[in-house]
Amino acid sequence: QMQLVESGGGSVQAGGSLTLSCIASGFSSRGYCMAWFRQTPWKEREGVAAIGADGTTTYGDSVEGRFVISRDNVKNVVYLQMSTLKPEDTAMYFCAATGPPFGLMLRSGRCARPSDTWGQGTQVTVSS
Prior knowledge:
The protein is built from no helices and 13 strands. By secondary structure, it is an all-beta fold. Strand 7 and strand 8 form a beta hairpin. The N and C termini lie far apart (about 40 Å). The relative contact order is 0.32.
């Protein structure tokens, strides 16, 4: 069974940093486009960052320069390093995977094709 599990969320002061992890199980994520989305009660899901099977990355305009997405294909883990956090970054963050043959396709902070698998989410709260 394909599964994604996010961790690393929590509460942090504005200007601080957090790193989220997404652990894939039941499949190898090597050939997949992997992405991070976020969602709040007052707006629909927003693409944050995505990384293709070849390591190419894309970011949403609101996080570019502050967030970094990376992957470790041996460990089957995708990371989201978040720095200079702002209260506006407060949201539930979700990991998602888009499988082959679309693993190289990226567009505007997300994988270009719909994701196959989603995680349960991890909450990030930025105060002050």
